[in-house]
Design a protein that fits this description.
alpha/beta; six-stranded mixed sheet; four-stranded antiparallel sheet; 10 strands; 25% strand; BCA_ABC_TP_C
């Protein structure tokens, strides 16, 4: 579904990503972890058309996409959320999702809009202004907007940030259900490492812009390089 080869991103003298090579198979649930500044969000920017990579290849279903616009990525079935939710504050929840349907060339059928809103558990808020929602609800709205574009690849950037442990687990269950229901390939960046490790099929670790490890959760948590660079005793006790 998604593959990157020797992906690099440089800002002046700063290498945000350096020769990252990674594949995500169709239907897979990949988690990406790493300390702040590791290049995780930059990676998402590079594989969704926000940034033009300095070097390397980005392929969606085998077709090269580096250098294409975010709109082209969307039309190819790539949708994403952001660390800070990007919603239209002066529009209702319903109108935010309706706009996303239109942007994704899927039409604006009211029943489909309501279906997506209900699926992320914000049906009671459909007529509320998005700007008046608490951050956790804005994150749910952003997931609904991403789903509205009819994605095949869903990129989630810290959708559990600021939530309690119980709420984080609820988000993980929601993502798993949505993956199965909509037949999605999912890549999830998250700092809630324990929950992520229990949820995903595979984990990739970024550190100083490089791919430090990539494998099954049990393998990654036992990797001395990962423990030293990031996890410490957090998930090994």
């Amino acid at each position: 579904m998604l593959s990157v080869e020797n992906l690099g991103m440089q800002f002046g003298g700063l290498k945000a990503l350096s020769e990252v090579t990674m594949k995500v198979e169709r239907g897979e649930f990949l988690g990406i972890i790493g300390p702040n500044g590791a290049g995780k969000t930059t990676f998402f920017h590079a594989v969704s058309g926000i940034y033009l990579p300095t070097s390397g290849k980005v392929r969606i279903d085998g077709a090269e996409f580096q250098g294409k616009s975010a709109d082209a990525f969307c039309k190819a079935g790539v949708a994403r959320t952001f660390q800070t939710p990007r919603v239209f504050s002066d529009m209702t929840v319903h109108d935010n999702v309706r706009f996303a349907f239109t942007f994704g060339n899927r039409g604006g059928d009211a029943s489909l809009i309501d279906e997506v809103i209900d699926e992320v558990h914000i049906g009671s808020l459909r007529q509320e202004l998005a700007g008046e929602l608490p951050p956790a609800r804005q994150r749910q709205l952003e997931i609904a907007m991403a789903l509205a574009t009819a994605p095949r690849l869903l990129l989630l950037d810290e959708v559990a940030a600021g939530l309690t442990e119980g709420e984080v687990d609820e988000v993980a269950r929601l993502i798993l259900r949505l993956r199965d229901q909509y037949q999605l390939t999912v890549v999830w960046i998250e700092h809630a490492v324990r929950t992520l490790m229990r949820t995903v099929d595979r984990v990739a670790v970024l550190h100083f812009g490089q791919l430090l490890a990539d494998g099954a959760p049990a393998e990654v948590t036992a990797d001395p390089k990962v423990i030293s660079a990031y996890l410490g005793d957090e998930v090994t006790q």
